[in-house]
């Protein structure tokens, strides 16, 4: 009987505790899911990625900007916060790190220049959560705005690929955040936005109650699968099983993303799927005048 299956009569059903990231990891690759969430100690990861350093630095600076007193919420202060909190992991050398620090500083200064510093968000880096009969799901939202009587989910993106309305519409994470925010803050939330700083663009989608229910139902379906896999993992470990049955239960899903996987060194299928990437290869290209050129193949970024 699975973790989310029928329990003893009269006993409450055990909820699967998760985040949207955990659910998406199961969908993307059960092998990576096992390495990330089940194996303890977890397999050693590869080197840090420069594009993750860019994303985290930008996110941290924007969160800190909203925590500043109103009179200090200026683009110049945003630039200072970015520079002070700059993360240097994954870059080819100091020159590349400095170049991207300056580009990221320009991004946050330009972006904060479009914001009204007096328009206080309802939440910044706010954790929201909810429960259904199947899952206990939670996540941290970059920003929650209030516009009129509605809440709006805002997610910052710094990846190389420009984003579209379809990205906002199909995002399981954004839909789950909208449901969680509505239930935690007791206010309607249907609109979700992806703010892509490299291109200064915003991709939006306004959900209906039906589309939010469908996303939540999809999250429950994924959770059912992952919970059963979790239980199988525990059973196999209890039997002191060797690696092959674990690999069979948690198959790799080889593809282009394998070149960017933190656990590539531990997965023969992933290594065969494509060449290893250098830690800085996920960065967008820079034109001769230093402008960021979006597009091209690359990993998802924060």
Reconstruct the topology from this structure:
Elements: E1 16-18, H1 20-28, H2 30-38, H3 50-67, H4 75-84, H5 94-112, E2 123-131, E3 135-147, E4 150-157, H6 165-170, H7 172-185, E5 189-196, E6 201-206, H8 209-238, H9 243-249, H10 268-273, E7 285-286, E8 292-293
Parallel strand pairs: 1-3, 4-5
Antiparallel strand pairs: 2-3, 3-4, 5-6, 7-8
Helix pairs in contact: 1-2, 1-8, 3-4, 3-5, 4-5, 7-8
Could you explain how this protein is built, in words?
The protein folds into three domains: 18-36 and 222-271, no CATH class; 50-112, no CATH class; 124-207, Lambda Exonuclease, Chain A (Alpha-Beta Complex), CATH 3.90.320.10. The radius of gyration is 21 Å and the shape is globular. Strands 1, 2, 3, 4, 5 and 6 form a six-stranded mixed beta sheet that branches. The protein has a two-stranded antiparallel sheet with strand order 7-8. A hairpin with a 3-residue loop joins strand 2 (123-131) and strand 3 (135-147). The protein is built from ten helices and eight strands. 42% of the residues lie in helices and 17% in strands.
- Taking pLDDT < 50 over at least 5 consecutive residues as the criterion, the unreliable ranges are 1-8
Radius of gyration, in angstroms, nearest whole number: 21 Å
By CATH, the topology of the largest domain is: Lambda Exonuclease, Chain A
Spatial gap, N to C terminus:
37 Å
Helix count, DSSP H or I runs of 4 or more residues: 10
Strand segment count? 8
What is the average of the pLDDT values? 91
H/E series? EHHHHHEEEHHEEHHHEE
Q: Categorize the overall geometry.
A: globular
Strand content: 15-25%
């Amino acid at each position: 009987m699975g973790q989310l299956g029928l329990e003893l009569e009269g006993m409450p059903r055990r909820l699967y505790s998760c985040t949207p990231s955990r659910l998406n990891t199961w969908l993307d690759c059960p092998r990576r899911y096992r390495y990330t969430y089940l194996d303890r100690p977890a397999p050693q990861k590869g080197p840090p990625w420069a594009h993750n350093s860019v994303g985290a630095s930008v996110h941290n600076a924007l969160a800190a900007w909203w925590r500043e007193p109103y009179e200090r919420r200026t683009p110049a202060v945003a630039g200072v916060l970015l520079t002070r909190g700059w993360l240097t992991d994954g870059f080819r050398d100091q020159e590349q790190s400095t170049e991207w620090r300056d580009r990221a500083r320009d991004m946050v200064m330009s972006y904060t220049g479009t914001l009204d510093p007096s328009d206080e968000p309802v939440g910044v880096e706010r954790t929201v959560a909810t429960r259904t009969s199947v899952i206990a799901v939670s996540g941290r939202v970059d920003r929650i705005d209030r516009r009129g009587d509605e809440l709006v989910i805002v997610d910052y993106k710094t990846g190389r690929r420009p984003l579209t309305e379809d990205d906002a519409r199909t995002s399981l994470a954004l839909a789950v955040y909208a449901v969680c925010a509505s239930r935690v803050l007791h206010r309607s939330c249907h609109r979700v936005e992806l703010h892509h700083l490299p291109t200064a663009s915003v991709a939006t989608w306004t959900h209906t109650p039906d589309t939010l229910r469908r996303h939540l139902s999809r999250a429950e379906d994924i959770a059912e699968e992952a919970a059963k896999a979790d239980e199988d993992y525990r059973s196999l470990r209890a039997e002191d099983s060797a690696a092959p049955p674990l690999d069979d239960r948690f198959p790799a899903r080889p593809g282009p993303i394998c070149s960017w996987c933190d656990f590539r060194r531990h997965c023969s299928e992933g290594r065969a799927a494509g060449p290893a990437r250098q830690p800085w290869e996920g960065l967008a290209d820079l034109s001769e005048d230093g402008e960021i050129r979006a597009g091209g193949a690359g990993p998802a970024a924060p």
